[in-house]
Amino acid sequence: MPVTAYDLTGRTAFVTGAASGIGRASALLLAEAGATVHCADLDTAGLHETAGQIKDGGGTAHIHPLDVTDRSDLRQAVTSCTRLNVLAAIAGIMHNSPVLETRDEDLDRVMSVNFKGVLYACQEAARLMIARGSRGSIVTMASGAVDTGGPGLLCYGAAKAAVVQLTKTLATEVGRYGIRVNAVAPGWIRTPMTERPDDEAQARYEAVMARMSPLGRVGDPEDIAHTVLYLASDASSFTTGQIVRPNGGVAMPW
Ligand code: NAP
Question: 175 CA to middle of ligand 1, Å?
């Protein structure tokens, strides 16, 4: 028997980054749980693939090719939902450069996509939820990098730390409308973002990451999608302002 607290039948979700990796896995799982899913991303072909998979599974999907750094496109896409119950703000980019070699334009680009893109989505979604009187759940995507730092992770980690601050602050401001806001901080997950240049390098890196986990493996996008579903659904009805860490128990050694 399905557990009804996870049932999203009749609800509408907006997912950014839905063309790939964690965003796609989350869009598919939210749809499987019954939600109508609005999928947004830069990658139009990837969006069609995600929406096709949702429809093949009997679900309902709409696509919105857009750049999350464009506030007006994002507003148009979010407000096209007649009502909204769930936002999963997942789109993001990786950037790696040592602090001493980091340029202003690196920092600006990463903050723009990984922080402002999440901020704009949260603002538009929360405004719509409040205007329509819908209780809602907002899920943001942080990273284990906010706990550990790490070589080359200045821009990425700073943007993700800002996402954590946004999550906690917004949670305190919209709780009275019945809107919950939580962040997911995954460990190392096998997606296009973490692809290495060749199979050998990939296998070597994954072996290192797997050894760091008490579970002895790296994560898959579906591991994170299940956390997104938990936070999106009534299963987490008394959870807000929290950072959930599906990371295989890894504590980074640096
Ligand atoms: P991914 O497979 O590369 O997916 C990211 C998606 O976001 C891509 O489809 C990408 O499109 C899209 N995107 C990038 N910039 C965008 C923009 N400006 N507007 C709209 N869409 C944009 O990466 P992922 O690993 O699933 O990452 C998803 C999220 O999880 C990110 O926020 C990432 O920081 C976070 N995360 C990942 C890991 C991990 O180990 N994989 C760990 C912790 C946190 P393009 O491909 O066209 O750029």
Answer: 28
User: What are 15's two structure tokens?
Assistant: 């997912």
Q: What are the average pLDDT values for consecutive 10-residue runs of the chain, which has 254 residues? A: 88 98 99 98 98 98 98 97 96 98 98 98 98 96 93 97 98 98 97 95 94 96 98 98 96 64
156 classed as catalytic? yes
Q: Is the CB of 91 under 6 A from ligand 1?
A: yes
- Dihedral of CA 134/37/71/191: which sign? positive
Q: Does the residue 130 lie in any domain?
A: yes
| Residue 94: domain span | 3-189+220-244
Residue nearest to atom 24 of ligand 1 (CA): 21
- DSSP alpha helices (H): ranges in the chain? 21-32, 44-56, 71-79, 104-110, 117-132, 145-148, 154-174, 199-212, 221-232
CATH (domain of 160): 3.40.50.720
